[in-house]
Amino acid sequence: MQHILAIDAGGSKCDALLLQEDGVALGWGHIEAQSLDITRARVGIGRAPHAIELAIELAIGDRLSFRIQEDEEDPKPMMVTDSGEVEVPYIGRFPAEGKTCKQLAHQIKAALEKDYYIEATVIIAVDLLAKTRGRVYLVGALRMPGPQEIPSDETLTLSKAILRSGGFTEYADKKNVKITRKTGPAEADKQTFIVNVGQIFDNGKVETDIPLEPGDLILVPDRKIRF
Q1: N or C: which end of the chain has fewer CB within 10 A?
Q2: pLDDT tens digits, residue range 6-25?
Q3: Which regions of the chain carry the CATH code 3.30.1950.10?
């Protein structure tokens, strides 16, 4: 028997976080609203731990379980490969990196129903997250510059990365910390941010703190005038 842990309704169909009798979350599925047995449904208020897990954006190295409910087969293991893809039955390689389980299930469902199924209930769950989400690189006026891993269980912001690098040196220009981020395959595909980290540390302006992404380059320049 399956229960419903959370429901995201939308017309005659809805997204449901399916829960087994033993309490194991199966993953997000897209199901007919009229097929729900509300007497057996447990609708979560707020965000349950399973829902938090399934809201995480997938990254290279994540291990997942996948099944199509209509096949009545056991879940199949899959992993996000170095190319950011997963191997999906019938379809082959499918982009997964940066998507949530819910988003990925939606897109695979649409692809399966285009050529292979009349109705496909796709259920995807995270079995094991990769230990890290990639690296960022810090250079310049820091006490311990160098690469840093992005933990899979937290958001690494610019201020956190600087603190983990031992903080600024005496003559660091805290007002003009530069983040360079790749946005595409071409050399010119870059985005640059200039952040006043001094305001974050000294005045608590955390709204200007930027979550870092894999591959980000952080440059802390020296002050031109030292006093």
Answers
A1: C
A2: 434 333 444 555 544 444 44
A3: 2-128
